[in-house]
Amino acid sequence: MLKDTHLHQEIHEQPQVLSALIDRELRHASDLAAVMRERDVQLVVIAARGSSDNAARYANYLLGSMNGLVVSLA
After folding, report:
1. How far apart are CA 42 and CA 51, in angstroms?
2. Which residues of 16-33 are buried (b: 16+ CB within 10 A; e: fewer)?
3. At a CB cut-off of 8 Å and minimum separation 6, what does 42 contact?
4. SS3 state of residue 67
5. What is the pTM of this model?
6. For the purposes of burial, counting CB atoms within 10 Å of the CB of 10, is it exposed (0-12), middle (13-18) or buried (19 or more)?
7. With contact defined as beta carbons under 8 Å apart, do 70 and 45 qualify?
8. How far apart are CA 36 and CA 30, in angstroms?
């Protein structure tokens, strides 16, 4: 049955995992955003390889589209 697969279990764990990640890392993200504003960051270069490329593309969207920064993927 599909519900017994590892993939199914991981998919359904995502909301709780993401919520815990946000709770744990929100302060760090806020601190980073404050430093970026303070330094007037206009350009971000992201280096990623392999599966980290997916996270880099998401960061590209968040930093670029949502925050108006120029973002380049190395």
Report:
1. 26
2. eeeeeeeeeeeeeeeeee
3. 69, 70
4. coil
5. 0.68
6. exposed
7. no
8. 10
Share of the chain residues as helix, strand and coil, in percent rounded to the nearest 5: 65, 10, 25
HSE-up (13 A, CA, CB side) for residue 62: 9
Rounded Cα gap, residues 57 and 16, in angstroms: 23
3-state SS, residue 40:
coil
pLDDT above 90 (res 2): no
Structure confidence at residue 71 as a pLDDT band (50, 70, 90): very high
Distance (Å, whole) CA 12 – CA 54: 20
Task: Give the list of residues 6+ apart from residue 57 with CB closer than 8 angstroms, or none.
Answer: 73
Amino acid at 49: R
Q: Which two structure tokens, joined as six digits, stand for 64?
A: 């670029």
